Amino acid sequence: MSKQQAISPGKNFFAGGFGGVCLVFAGHPLDTIKVRIQTMPVPGPGESPLYRGTFDCFKQTLAKEGFKGLYKGMAAPIIGVTPMFAVCFFGFGLGKKLQQKTPDDVLTYPQLFAAGMLSGVFTTAIMAPGERIKCLLQIQAAKGEVKYAGPMDCVKQLYKENGIRGIYRGTALTLMRDVPASGMYFMTYEWLKRLLTPEGKSPNELSVPSVLFAGGMAGIFNWAVAIPPDVLKSRYQTAPEGMYPNGFRDVLRELLREEGVASLYKGFTAVMLRAFPANAACFLGFEMAMKFLNWAAPSL
Predict the structure, then answer these.
(1) Does the pLDDT at position 280 exceed 60?
(2) CB–CB of 230/177 below 8 Å?
């Protein structure tokens, strides 16, 4: 096997940021659908649900708001996702480096999972407020109310109402979602890269289709772990102030009482439809940026 490239958390930071931009452009429309399905009101007796499913939500959004409606709230994730994925890939690179005794050490899958979990801790500080703003903007468009003029106005109003706590509402749930899911995300990607690498070649020399497949499947495995806490987080972050005094436990109790265990997988179709292309785009962007950085600054 070819000698593996030394891990550089700094290069991971810049390449991860570029990967994050690729992910948002590829995945935001289905993220909008996911949040709207997860947060739609429970229909009363004899009432039809607001959306019959993923494709109905997609059709209604297009009909009422046009193509632009699918990209509602995208400014917040673009502003947040670029540094967040930069920090995420930096955390993963750092997690790997901390566990290596020498630069040539090949890490085990539990070590890769641990490095991925560290990346989830790193990203929460950016992820929690970014997700709160994104969800509020996505559902206000669906309700037809315009409380927030845009991401910055949303931040200002949240801060005015409840200070920094209002902006960071849902942080514990973001951690509960992202720490195990990030471990699964990176471990799956590295596992598939190794699996798809031809004999005698380095995983860094994988073809574009192989990178797309490994990245897309990593996204699927990530979300298989992340959906239940993500449903709770979307509900909690978009609920009126004071609705859930005991936090996510109240959200969980209400969901299970009113809609059963299946409600924890609300938006499953939209999530999985989005997970493959968005994360395939993310990892391809990351690998391309990493190749460029290794070429432009080999010694860093």
Answers:
(1) yes
(2) yes
pLDDT in tens, 140-198: 877 777 888 888 899 999 999 989 988 998 898 999 999 999 999 999 999 999 999 98
The burial class, CB within 10 Å (0-12 / 13-18 / 19+), for 30 is buried
d(CA 264, CA 220): 17
In the block, residue with structure tokens 């929690």: 128
Task: Evaluate whether 136 touches 146 at the Cβ level (below 8 Å).
Answer: no
pLDDT band (50, 70, 90) for residue 247: confident
The predicted model scores a pTM of 0.80
What is the C-alpha separation between 30 and 278, in angstroms, rounded? 10
Give the H or E element holding residue 74.
none
Quick one: DSSP state of residue 200?
Answer: T
What tokens does 112 get? 């890769």
Query: Contacts from 211-216 at CB under 8 Å and sequence distance 24+?
Result: 211/280, 211/283, 211/284, 211/287, 212/280, 212/283, 212/284, 213/280, 214/188, 214/189, 214/283, 215/189, 215/279, 215/280, 215/281, 215/282, 215/283, 215/284, 216/275, 216/276, 216/277, 216/279, 216/280
User: How does residue 1 score in pLDDT terms, banded at 50, 70 and 90?
Assistant: very low
Which residue, chain included where needed, has tokens 């669906």?
142
Nearest Cα to Cα of residue 76 among 136, 7, 22: 136
